[in-house]
Amino acid sequence: MKTASIHTSTRLTKGFSFFEMMMFVAIIGIIVAIVVPMWGNNDAFYAARDRRNAQELVSICIMAQAAGLDFVENETNLVEILRNISHGRNVERGAMKGRWFSVPGLSEEDLEGAANYVSLQDGQLHYSFERKATRPGITSL
């Protein structure tokens, strides 16, 4: 009777193969490609966030005005108007009765940043892609 013998390779390896080293280099390259832009200038990130928030706040304000709810009223402080929109209000009469208009979850920094892209004209909020010039004494991001 013949017995089958199984030979296991007991090759002693010291170090890593070329393929393993190239995979390591590729993974490190991908990580660096993702992380390095984050170390740069974050102004574009903050500007995009502020523009998005401004668009959303102005859109909610316009929809609320169409439903008979006026966030602007006699208020002239733009940040206060945006704060009111963020907190929200309920429509009390009309076809949209009971509808809640708000933009929840915005911090004070978000509201101040969004105010740089919003203007108040004739009792209505208007969005502008261009950042407003900052007034003296006011710091921006």
Strand order of the largest sheet: 1-2
Spatial shape: elongated
What's the total helix number?
4
Extended strand count: 4
Radius of gyration (CA) equals: 29 Å
Report the sheet with the most strands, covering strand number, pairing sense and barrel closure: 2 strands, antiparallel
Mean pLDDT: 84
List SSEs in N-to-C order.
HHHEEHEE
Structural class: mainly alpha
Q: Which percent range fits the helix content?
A: 40-55%
Uncertain spans, ≥5 residues at pLDDT below 50?
A: 136-141
* First and last CA, distance: 85 Å
Strand content: 5-15%
Question: How does this structure look, described?
Answer:
The chain is mostly helical and about 140 residues long. The protein has four helices and four strands, in the order αααββαββ. It has helices spanning about 20-40, 45-65, 80-85, 110-115, and strands at about 90, 100, 120, 125. The strands form two sheets. It has a two-stranded antiparallel ribbon with strand order 1-2. The model is unreliable at about 135-140 (pLDDT under 50).
What features would you highlight for this structure?
141 residues, mainly alpha, two-stranded antiparallel ribbon, 4 helices, 9% strand, elongated
